[in-house]
Design a protein that fits this description.
Length: 424
């Protein structure tokens, strides 16, 4: 639950219960819940569903269906048991009912759900309604945070964070951009507040997850995609797969599928290779959970003090989970780089801004080696800028490290605002 949601929940406790009618309370719950909330009118034989029916199962949300419609989508092996369970609950006039079963999604696959309902009776204990929620227990949810507003047809800014990073790292940029446009940050599966995914951490999978999330959240294209480090590869993969949805790209100290070529022979690349091997070993053996669990006990040395109050502490609290998922992403880097090389196509005249760090705070401390690494990194950034005939290469101030969005957020904000104006 986000801090904003927690605040809303606390404030709601201060409002007298009589402030809302029962019907109004139901509508509020149905709007804010991610579950499939329903209101079954037993006498009429119809059920109202909230948007969760679309988000979880792909059917039309905020709609009315017959009770028979729900029954027909229960997995055949479960149907008789579940229908009989409801009948007995009504017969015994119980207040609460719950069952686990499989429910058919619109694409033909089956979701494992837990269904909990509460019966409402009249004064003579005749059943009137059943209010409940279906929860998809084998699905996974991604944490999405959108602020600001865009006019119809104007782009929404979508941010892909770097490897092992979270959307909260973009708080300084998001707060400013939201004053004049809509901007969304999110946590990839397993990172931050998002559930882990059973799927491999490839660019193909991650961009499909993002695409599905945007559809389910009803965040319509066009998009300006902003990608940091590994996120830069992901936003380019997204544009490759869904070109009609993207009107601009901003790469912030981005990686590339040809990183090993540009950084060949450097200490940076040697360390990266060791990091990949270690991440694979730890992930395969399960030791990653122990190692990363310990990381939460020690403060991060990265300088996030300029983030809004509470953000550094929140990021630190999520360190074990986030670093574990980030290591899984690192272990998948060879595959992700291969995908990037396979889809290394021209962007035509698509608006493209490439922002480069001012100094490499993750490079070698040896002056000669540092110069070699910085030269290779800059060449890679120049190559990225060459992918579009409508591009701009921006080098951050000398004191700005890899996390440009933290060290020099104004530079990123300005780049986003300029691109929004350019594509309007």
């Amino acid at each position: 639950m986000s801090a904003k949601t927690q605040s809303s929940a606390i404030e709601s406790e201060l409002i007298p219960k009589a402030f809302f009618t029962d019907e109004e309370k139901l509508q509020i719950i149905a709007k804010v819940s991610a579950d499939a909330i329903y209101d079954w009118d037993i006498e009429a034989g119809v059920t109202r569903w909230n948007h969760g029916m679309r988000t979880l199962f792909g059917y039309a949300g905020d709609t009315v269906q017959t009770h028979h419609w729900w029954q027909e989508r229960i997995f055949p092996d479960d149907k008789e048991r579940v229908v009989e369970s409801v009948r007995k609950a009504l017969e015994k006039k119980v207040d609460y009912w719950t069952e686990e079963y499989k429910f058919r999604r619109v694409d033909g696959t089956n979701a494992h759900v837990i269904d909990r309902g509460y019966f409402i009776y009249d004064k003579d204990r005749n059943p009137l309604r059943m209010i409940g929620a279906m929860v998809d227990v084998d699905g996974y949810r991604l944490h999405l945070y959108c602020t600001g507003e865009s006019q119809p047809g104007e782009p929404t800014v979508i941010v892909e964070a770097g490897s092992g990073s979270v959307g909260l790292m973009w708080a300084l940029v998001q707060d400013e951009v939201a004053k004049s446009a809509r901007i969304c940050t999110y946590d990839r599966a397993g990172l931050g507040w998002s559930d882990p995914s059973p799927k491999p951490r490839t660019a193909d999978v991650i961009t499909d997850e993002l695409h599905t999330m945007l559809i389910n959240a009803e965040i319509e294209a066009p998009y300006i995609l902003v990608g940091h480090w590994l996120g830069g590869i992901f936003v380019r993969e997204y544009q490759y797969k869904y070109p009609d949805e993207v009107v601009g790209i901003i790469l912030v100290d981005s990686g590339d599928g040809n990183l090993a070529t540009y950084m060949e022979g450097t200490a940076y690349m040697q360390l990266m290779s060791q990091f990949i091997d270690a991440s694979k070993t730890l992930s395969d053996t399960g030791l990653i959970k122990i190692v990363m669990g310990l990381s939460a006990l020690f403060p991060s040395e990265r300088g996030y003090q300029t983030l809004p109050a509470g953000a550094p502490e929140t990021i630190q609290a999520m360190m074990a989970k986030t670093t574990e998922a980030g290591s899984v992403e690192v272990a998948a880097l060879p595959i992700i780089w291969e995908e990037g090389r396979a889809h290394q196509t021209s962007l035509g005249d698509l608006p493209l801004t490439v922002i480069v760090h001012g100094y490499c705070n993750s490079c070698s401390k040896d002056p000669a080696e540092l110069a070699k690494e910085e030269a290779g990194w800059l060449e890679m950034q120049k190559y990225l800028a060459s992918l579009s005939s409508n591009s701009e290469l921006i080098i951050a101030s000398p004191q700005t490290g890899h996390d440009v969005q933290v060290d020099e957020p104004g530079l990123v904000v300005e780049a986003i605002q300029n691109m929004i104006e350019a594509v309007r």
